[in-house]
Predict the 3D structure of the following.
Amino acid sequence: MSKYKVKPLTPEDLRTYSLESRKSKVKVKDFARVLRGGESIFRFIDSLPDVLAAKDFKQFLHLMGKAREKKKAVIFALGAHVIKVGLNPILIDLMKRGWITSLALNGAGIIHDFEIAYSGQTSEDVSDQLKEGRFGMAQEPGEMLNQAIISGAEEDLGLGEAVGRMLAASDLSYKNLSLLANSYELEIPTTIHVAIGTDTIHFHPQSKGEALGKTSLRDFFLFCSLLEKINGGGIFVNIGSAVVLPEVFLKAVTFIRNKGISLTGFTTAVFDFIHHYRPYQNVVKRPVAEKGTGFYFIGHHELMLPLLAAALPD
């Protein structure tokens, strides 16, 4: 029994509401549309100057092509913002075309992905909702995601597979736009890396810390297994995660090397709004050292990711 006089708050009697009743800032009608690569986009890329970021971008596209030719892993790690700015159609298309072999998300990623699948919209107005304690109080994400995670823990599944299975088996109206449902159907592994207390579903009464911990830890070691496959020419891309996923990546690299695998000769890239310390050090610089290549591209996700996807041939 704890010796502390202060007791933790409990999630009992949490006041929730239906997700469908909430005003969201992003709807599926606003999502990106898949643009097929063609002569015009390829000529545009070729026309870019061979200096600075343009030169780096062309080199990165070349290395992406080499990785696919050699059947090496191409892993996309995504911050949740990438999902909520309407880029799921682009990412799903890249998975179907063989340009993504696995995904890694932080805990918020499954919430935005679920909201899109459930109601065709996501991204609540945090400032407005926070005033009356309504931020994150939508009932359905708290109930359905936590139940999927608990079921996954009971069956020794990772968190990503557990949620992907639930979404793929559901009759949700927009599950065709879900990253996790599509990755599950395509048998493209998706790992979820949770920091306890950072996600709104954690304070719902259905949440179980032991289930979150067990499934997310399993996903970490699955991520390590997937990351082994970038050795000798694979790609790791971090898009929009400033802290959690760069830290996970760095720990996975050292774990793999501790197992006696050299893990060299791969390429890393970061796409983000601004230059962050951890993505630069943990993704672009430290892991590749002298035997790999790292890139850092600055720009809005809703511009840069469609550009990248359009520049990759079928």
Q: What stands out?
A: The chain has a mean pLDDT of 94.
